[in-house]
Design brief:
By secondary structure, the protein is an all-alpha fold. It contains four helices and no strands. It holds the Pfam family PP-binding.
Length: about 90
């Protein structure tokens, strides 16, 4: 998957777990929690969706690397390099 495809996957997950959020002006460099009303359960939903859809194992100690869109894509890019988009 390309960086843009990974970003789109994250957007789709965010749309499902936070349907009332306007993601059109999401700043990729700012943390999700600063821009959206996400709680810790929402964050775990993101991790679980990635696991379910792409079998990506994300250890708890790596969760801080998923703080913003840029850091999430940076983290996932090598893990999803050989994965075809769903």
């Amino acid at each position: 998957m390309s960086r843009e495809q990974i970003r789109q996957v994250i957007i789709e997950i965010l749309e499902r777990i936070a349907p009332d959020e306007d993601l059109s002006d999401l700043d990729d460099s700012v943390s999700f929690r600063e821009q959206m009303e996400l709680d810790s359960m929402d964050f775990l939903d993101i991790v679980m969706e990635l696991r379910k859809q792409y079998r990506v194992q994300i250890p708890e100690e790596d969760y801080p690397q998923l703080a913003s869109m840029n850091s999430t894509v940076d983290y996932l890019e090598p893990k999803l390099a050989d994965v075809q988009p769903a």
